Amino acid sequence: MKTEMLAMILAGGKGSRLGKLTQTIAKPAVPFGGRYRIIDFTLSNCVNSGISTVGVVTQYQPLALNEHIGNGASWGLDGVDSGVTILQPYSSNEGSKWFEGTAHAIYQNIDYIDQVDPEYVLVLSGDHIYKMDYDKMLETHKRNHASLTVAVIEVPIEEASRFGIMNTDDHDRIVEFDEKPAEPKSNLASMGIYIFNWSRLRQVLLNSYNKDDQMLDFGQHVIPSYIESGENVFAYRFNDYWKDVGTIDSLWQASMEFIDPENDLKMSDSAWRIYSKNPVSPPHFITEQASVKGSLVVDGCYVAGDVQNSLLSNDVKIKEGAVIKDSVIMAGATIGKNVTITRAIVGENAIVGDNAEIDGTDEIAVVGYSEVIGVLVDES
């Protein structure tokens, strides 16, 4: 049966602005919310939108991401009529296959897309936190008889110069695209989510590369080309929660928002679940001396200290006398006795030794993956 829409998730980003947190893993594999990784939101959106065939394009430090996704079983993408495929760069007779941009990554995977033979290709980023029904976007795409539809979200006009900005007419047809304009004409920012008619995009990419006029990036090259050539290009307005967690500050802020049970992501909504591959851990244990207030504590945690407005991922240990405030402690981390941590992100399997102090009051503090600070006197 012909696939109507194939999802292609671009998950090869290095995420250099996340510093220590992406030294050994790709940005989409960074943990979020205690029991998820960032890419879980995009994968779950696909499944909840009825998209059963997904290609995940990886490049930078893909091992953790590949292991996390596996055969897609955690998202129900391992059935007879469903599947997830990891697409990595490879060498061929034509030479290097390293992806040089978003559009180039799609071009290099034309053979895979042709095997699926979709009518539409949904291009997604794997590093945003949000819930979106892509089927509704497809309905709008069809209704507009569009060749390309770009998801957009309104941002404060003072921040618009940080984004690709879409200028539209009264019918939301995109008439102009400005990449990070100094003086933006609107506040409609591209979310990096596109629906293309595959036959047309395929033709555009092949023609471009055959002429050596390489279209490397959707924002810089493909979208302006579509607009200039008179293609039907429309904006799809998104009005719900969406967060680009590409910086330490934005990741910390999104995590603090996530702690609130009334957060705009509506994580308790059983009709739109966010799925993930989770380890099997015992129930968490909180000692009589411990104090936990306004925090999320995941399976396997041992808490003997004071935790306030913080997020503890699975298998975290907080020892006696430790005080954790407004912080994110990722899986497997150990916090020693009498430690004080304020406004920080502590990476997976990190160790913070007894009596240490980590203060992110002025700037969010970060402890890297498996980083060791100080010494644990008693590792029991």
Describe this structure in words.
It contains 8 helices and 29 strands. The protein starts with a strand and ends in a 7-residue tail after the last strand. The chain is an alpha/beta fold and 380 residues long. It has helices at 39-48, 63-69, 102-107, 110-116, 134-143, 198-210, 218-228, 248-259; strands at residues 5-10, 31-32, 36-37, 53-57, 83-87, 120-125, 128-130, 148-154, 164-168, 174-179, 188-197, 233-237, 242-244, 285-286, 291-293, 296-297, 302-303, 306-308, 311-312, 317-318, 323-325, 328-329, 334-335, 340-342, 344-346, 351-352, 357-359, 365-367, 372-373. The strands form 7 sheets. Strands 5-4-1-6-11-8-12 form a 7-stranded mixed beta sheet. A 6-stranded parallel beta sheet has the order 14-17-20-23-26-29, with no helix packed on it. It folds into 2 domains: 3-259, Alpha-Beta Complex (Spore Coat Polysaccharide Biosynthesis Protein SpsA, Chain A), CATH 3.90.550; 285-373, UDP N-Acetylglucosamine Acyltransferase, domain 1, CATH 2.160.10.
CATH class of the largest domain: Alpha Beta
Based on the coordinates given, report the CATH architecture of the largest domain: Alpha-Beta Complex
Instruction: Report the total helices.
Output: 8
Given as residue ranges, the uncertain stretches (5+ residues, pLDDT < 50) are none
**Main beta sheet strand tally, sense and closure:** 7 strands, mixed
Domains counted in the coordinates: how many?
2
